[in-house]
Description:
The protein is mainly alpha-helical. It has helices at 5-19, 28-35, 39-51, 76-84, 91-94, 106-121, 126-139; strands spanning 55-58, 64-67. The protein has one domain (5-87, 122-139): Arc Repressor Mutant, subunit A. It is built from seven helices and two strands, in the order H-H-H-E-E-H-H-H-H. The longest helix is centred in the last third of the chain and has 16 residues, at 106-121. The radius of gyration is 18 Å and the shape is elongated.
Amino acid sequence: MKLSTRSRYGTRLLLEMARNYNGGPMQLGEIAKRLGVSVKYLEQIIIPLKKAGYIDSVRGPKGGHILARPPAEVTVAEIVTLLEDGVTLVECVEYPSVCGRSPICPTRVLWKAVSEAMLAQMHVTLADLAAQAEALEKQFPQLP
């Protein structure tokens, strides 16, 4: 499975907000600059994240966007599942009725196990990623 840029940048967007969680709202322009991504692209990604309750917006001169939940309560699995419309490798894993062979298909069993293992590895929280980012930046201070 290859994650889309939507999931990768969506996770990075929320990670930036997590790292600034107690610092107040962030403007998309600031986040876009940090991530090296266009504001227009982040505007597209932010829509489903807001609808799903991961981001709140604050109006006004010091407005911007903030995480709606604490970073320790948001997992990468949730973000990727939302932005990829699920994380199964093949459609029959989530919807067995799409294939008449589903009940007796050994490869479906394999794809289901792989999908579950992949999802289990993504049960890392934004707080975990923020701590890891801080440690890596200390280890490699010369990199952007």
